[in-house]
Design a protein that fits this description.
6 strands
Length: 312
């Protein structure tokens, strides 16, 4: 029987001191109980937060040492949300830190899936990607961005090994595990589409289109992509029209949907949705996807559909 692997990659605000971080445990368990036998799901929770931690702590200490720090407003928002988000973005986009993140993620993924030369997964197994926040940008960058194709840059070899392990990409596109769905939560990738045009080295369009076309020919169905948005999450942006303008212009290969999520007590903050109070609640909204029953149910349904024959 085939296995559905669910690969998670976190965003900001996930800093773990353990070798096996638990950030995805609750969501995975909720998905697992909704996927009935004989289907089997297996978790792959990647972790990269420790790579940036030292540099981020150094910057944070310098900022807080300033005489102006205590006079600033919204210190918790600056420290816990804005600094981590912008800091992770700036550090990852650098060649040095970016290559360290790639190396760590490659090692973790290979422990479960193996390599293209020595795979641990079986023919017929499927891969589902679940990304949160900045993790969306990291994953799309690793899988599809042009900037890694220069053989002389740090990280090139690791990126190519990751791409070779995925069907439809790499030097042998007819080999590797088959991608069956993508799920993005609180994703800012719409903003980063601005650097994916006009020949930018961050452009992911050509490789992503190549993957979509190869997957369609193998699976005879569109690749589902659900983009979960909490209305109070300032990092999350709609992607449906953005992605249709960037890739799969004829809408042949990609089934993309923006899906709003809600929390039990959202109605309490709703009257203040356009005020600073809602923004200060944004951190809670940004992390809400990991415990959302709606998110778990939607991902589970996609997994069950992916296991069925096309057009059934």
């Amino acid at each position: 029987m085939s296995t559905d692997y669910i690969l998670f990659i976190h965003g900001v605000s996930n800093r773990s001191k353990t070798e096996k971080p638990s950030y995805a445990d609750g969501l995975f368990q909720d998905i697992e109980k909704r996927v009935e036998p004989p289907l089997t799901v297996e978790k792959i929770a990647l972790y990269w937060g420790n790579v940036n931690l030292a540099a981020e702590n150094k910057l944070e200490d310098a900022l807080k040492a300033s005489k102006a720090w205590d006079k600033l407003w919204f210190k918790d928002f600056r420290d816990k949300q804005l600094l981590q988000f912008v800091g992770d973005a700036a550090l990852y986009l650098s060649r040095h830190v970016g290559s360290q993140v790639v190396a760590q993620l490659k090692q973790q993924a290979e422990q479960v899936l193996g390599t293209a030369a020595s795979p641990k997964h079986k023919p017929g197994d499927r891969l589902h990607l679940v990304t949160h926040s900045w993790g969306t940008v990291i994953l799309l960058d690793i899988l599809f961005a042009d900037r890694w194709e220069d053989e002389k840059i740090p990280g090139h070899k690791d990126v190519m090994l990751i791409r070779n392990a995925l069907f439809g990409l790499g030097a042998n596109p007819n080999q590797g595990i088959t991608l069956a769905s993508i799920h993005t939560m609180g994703s800012p990738i719409a903003l980063f589409s601005l650097i994916s045009v006009n020949g930018s080295s961050h452009d992911f369009q050509p490789q992503f289109n190549k993957l979509l076309e190869n997957l369609y020919h193998r699976r005879s169905r569109e690749l589902p992509w659900l983009n979960f948005i909490h209305s109070g999450d300032p990092v999350a942006w709609p992607l449906e029209k953005v992605m249709s303008g960037l890739v799969d212009g004829d809408a042949k290969y990609l089934d993309f949907k923006d899906q709003l999520t809600h929390e039990k007590f959202d109605f309490l903050i709703q009257p203040f949705s356009q005020t600073i109070l809602a923004l200060l609640n944004g951190g809670k909204a940004h992390g809400s996807y990991w415990s959302s029953k709606e998110v778990a149910q939607s991902i589970a349904q996609i997994i069950k559909t992916a296991a069925k024959p096309a057009n059934s």
